[in-house]
Design brief:
Shape: elongated
Order of helices and strands: HEEEEEEEE
Number of strands: 8
Strand order of the largest sheet: 1-2-6-5
CATH class of the largest domain: Mainly Beta
Strand content: 35-45%
CATH architecture of the largest domain: Sandwich
Bound molecules: copper (II) ion
CATH superfamily of the largest domain: Macroglobulin (MG2) domain
Oligomer: single chain
């Protein structure tokens, strides 16, 4: 009777260990898959980093699915407030090398602004990404 209980406990313990091991293995496989078929990366920084009312430079960084800088893309930006329609500023960004593109922005009011980037990759595919920045 006692032996059966102990055996039963050991069996349950083994099942738990195997299930956890399988879950961990699964998560590793998922991660590897994500890395292999990663998305194009579009990120935004601004100069100055802390935005004030007035002129600023938007720097858009474009990397391909392997994380390499993309220099022959066409990058444009649409800029407007999120909280009201200030009229959309549209601009073309110019290539700076190392996958970076610069565009001018003029923030005429404090508050939240949306910057929508449109990136036409060298192969013609189009990627859009929006960012919200706060002008303080
Ligand atoms: Cu406004």
């Amino acid at each position: 009777m006692m032996n059966k209980k102990i055996l039963y406990s050991i069996a349950i313990g083994i099942v738990i260990v195997v299930v956890f091991a399988a879950l961990k293995l699964n998560s590793n496989i998922d991660q590897a898959t994500v890395n292999q078929t990663g998305a194009i990366s579009i990120s935004l920084t601004t100069d100055p980093a802390v935005l004030r009312s007035g002129q600023a430079t938007l720097i858009i960084d474009v990397k391909d699915t392997e994380g390499k800088p993309v220099d022959n893309a066409k990058v444009s930006v649409d800029i407007n407030m999120t909280s009201m329609n200030m009229g959309t500023q549209q601009g073309e960004a110019t290539a700076q090398g190392s996958g970076k593109y610069a565009a001018a922005a003029r923030f005429t009011m404090l508050g939240p602004w949306r910057i929508t980037t449109k990136v036409t990759m060298p192969n013609g595919s189009i990627e859009n990404k929006s960012f919200t920045v706060n002008v303080q």
